[in-house]
């Protein structure tokens, strides 16, 4: 990594922080801080579509972290085409979200993501759901920072002295503009970062396809000989990673959980302002996500062909590091810096979204119930302090993470354990079906336990979310056997 690369990356980080802070808006209270102030602000069709575009790109950028930028090429590199089944699942999940979930969610007109849970099941269930969400995102943000930093260090051949500086640069810069810019700053910078990510993925693909030594016939033969073109694997073996059933169940449940129960997503629906605009934003997000995931998988497959036909150049590193290593070895100076900036962009966009959503959860789900935070301005101040503490905490935890498996599996485990129970809880809340709150609590806790047991078993990581969701659903469904739903006494707002 030369001086030009360092200058480009540093300039990008500085630009991102500046834009995030300047786009923060007035932030007169906690509502604008957590919704971005887009709702109702767009008076012309052009401004409304611009708001939809920003929210839609932000939804996509939120979940394309540095983990995604490394994990999907890694799995394409090691497994080939079978992982492409993920792309077919996403549109199916989008139909469920747009046609079923969003109309029911907006019918309740809540300004807080988990308020509907309290309305249906009482505050104890809401508090447990919020607590699970906080644990989920703090752990996820720690891995989120740690994994890309190690990959970049390995690819750029940086020694251990770079570890903490990179960790601190990403964590502190993300925390800074999230704290000062609020959700509006996060949305605008996310939209920019999504475009940077797309460019960062397209560059290596174009380089490989246009390389004069790349032979399409040899590429197809190599993939066929390596059994990487058999993408419809109907095996029932739960230890096989990319079967039709594991992808449909695992990716399907995980994506539904992210879209339905993750406060990062729900905050963006609220930022869109109404049902119609949130639908447009989500559909735009789905198109962008499908394109980028397909490109990331294609990149991984092409990298497997590249190194398969050039075995002397194969990097002696984890598959997670193959993409950044290829960039360092084959992309021209300056261009490689932009691609590393794209990985950092993916990391920072998810980091900022995690901070703002966790600050929102701590503020709305817990602090807002205290008399001292009854005033919106007081809640705004609490939210900003919480954002600082959360960002710095995740940054510190990222530095003490020691042993990881493949990034894809780690992400599936951290998310799946909690997203399964949260999906069932939130889905049940909007469905208006009778429910026994204590049975839902028991189901959610049992779902987390079975999820962790699955994570440490020989079963592939894609089954963690379905197992935790199925456990929660089975126990909560016992409530349907009772004619009168049970309620907690504490229903206060």
Rg over C-alpha atoms, rounded to the nearest angstrom: 22 Å
Instruction: Quote the CATH topology.
Output: Sodium/glucose cotransporter
The total strand number stands at: 0
Beta strand %: under 5%
CATH architecture: Up-down Bundle
Key phrases:
mainly alpha, Sodium/glucose cotransporter, 18 helices, globular
Spell out the blueprint of helices and strands.
Layout: H1 3-22, H2 30-35, H3 45-63, H4 66-79, H5 85-106, H6 115-121, H7 123-156, H8 163-210, H9 216-225, H10 244-261, H11 263-272, H12 275-309, H13 322-330, H14 335-366, H15 376-398, H16 407-431, H17 437-455, H18 464-476
Q: Mind explaining what this structure looks like?
A:
By secondary structure, this protein is mainly α. It has one domain (3-403): Sodium/glucose cotransporter (Up-down Bundle), CATH 1.20.1730.10. The chain has helices at 3-22, 30-35, 45-63, 66-79, 85-106, 115-121, 123-156, 163-210, 216-225, 244-261, 263-272, 275-309, 322-330, 335-366, 376-398, 407-431, 437-455, 464-476. Helix 1 packs parallel to helix 14, helix 7 runs antiparallel to helix 16 (407-431) and helix 10 (244-261) crosses helix 16. The longest helix is centred in the middle third of the chain and has 48 residues, at 163-210. The protein is globular. The model is unreliable at 489-493 (pLDDT under 50).
Task: Summarize the entry for a quick read.
This protein has helices spanning 3-22, 30-35, 45-63, 66-79, 85-106, 115-121, 123-156, 163-210, 216-225, 244-261, 263-272, 275-309, 322-330, 335-366, 376-398, 407-431, 437-455, 464-476.
